[in-house]
Design a protein that fits this description.
Helix content is 31%, strand content 32%. By secondary structure, it is α+β, with helices and mostly antiparallel strands.
């Protein structure tokens, strides 16, 4: 039976949907403005729709209410969270709203809303997340290599879309069908949304291409990934898929700041070290710089473990 595993971690919250010892979905939540948040704001730039929320966050609102001058107050709802990208971030998107201000649902509320059982994990308990393959999924998200029975996928995150490239040996039709199932499972597992491109092997004839598309549809439906729109597989083996974009995918979160992601994963491991804990821990210069920006992370580790860990640059 499927069950959500949830951890309130240091610097991030985590959840995984697990069934029959298989990790079906992996989710990480970082602090920040959440989708579904309704907040008061002031219009800063009519031309771009830039607004500043009461908490100081910025978003782009569309449409801008008619007659609202710059500096004017309005209420907005966040419909897409900020999207991290290397070197810059896309601002959150919002729409005008008449609702009362309220925070958007956090990760725990969202997984509870699925109606499935939720188990909250503690550091002193068996590491059920890791047993289900949490580390392997994080590795998939960061290096993009996904192996399936007949071949392998290469997942690449770009500013325009997430791309999946299929590699494997002939015969090509069963390879492409198996790859479609693997891509659908990966999209669900990593919460990939927005524009998605899939480069399948080139197949001759309409029927084989339709079989590949049908296998992808079935895998997405099995993972509850709807609604979505897609093209047919064209003569060159390419298919494009669109899913509603509300928050960053797991690869986008991890690749936007690899040092911070690695540090949070390290803190998770340090939490689980039995007494006397880890008084000294080597880290990279990039991780040390991240710790300097987030001193509350090492403070929280000390509070949880009772050990003050000294992080040393390796």
């Amino acid at each position: 039976m499927a069950e959500w595993l949830y951890e309130a971690g240091i610097g991030e919250n985590r959840a995984a949907l697990v069934a029959d010892d298989r990790l079906l979905q992996a989710r990480i939540e970082l602090p920040g403005l959440r989708a579904g948040t309704v907040a008061r704001a002031r219009l800063r730039d009519r031309g771009t729709g830039l607004v500043e929320l009461e908490g100081g966050e910025e978003a782009l609102v569309a449409p801008v209410p008619a007659g609202l001058p710059e500096g004017g107050a309005l209420t907005v709802e966040i419909v897409r969270e900020a999207m991290p990208e290397r070197g810059r971030a896309k601002r959150a998107r919002a729409v005008p709203s008449d609702a009362a201000p309220a925070p958007g649902p956090d990760l725990l509320a969202r997984i509870a809303a699925t109606g499935l059982s939720v188990r909250t994990l503690r550091p002193h308990e068996p590491d059920l997340l890791e047993q289900a393959g949490w580390g392997e999924v994080l590795e998939e998200a960061t290096d993009g290599e996904i192996v399936f029975g007949r071949g392998a996928l290469r997942m690449s995150v770009t500013p325009a879309m997430t791309l999946f490239d299929v590699d494997g040996a002939a015969p090509l039709e069963p390879l492409a069908v198996a790859a479609a199932t693997a891509v659908g499972a990966a999209i669900v597992r990593h919460d990939v949304t927005g524009s998605i491109g899939i480069d399948f092997p080139t197949l001759e004839g309409r029927a084989p291409r339709q079989a590949v598309a049908a296998a992808l549809d079935a895998a997405l439906a099995a993972g509850g990934a709807g609604p979505f729109e897609r093209t047919a597989v064209n003569g060159f083996g390419f298919l494009q898929l669109i899913r509603r974009r509300t928050r960053p995918s797991l690869p986008e979160l991890l690749l936007a700041d690899p040092a911070a992601a690695a540090l949070r994963a390290l803190l998770r491991r340090l939490e689980r070290v039995p007494p006397p804990g880890t008084p000294r821990q080597p880290v990279t210069r990039a991780m040390a710089a991240t710790l300097a920006r987030h001193p509350e992370w090492s403070e929280e580790l000390a509070r949880r473990t009772g050990v003050v860990t000294r992080f040393e640059t390796d």
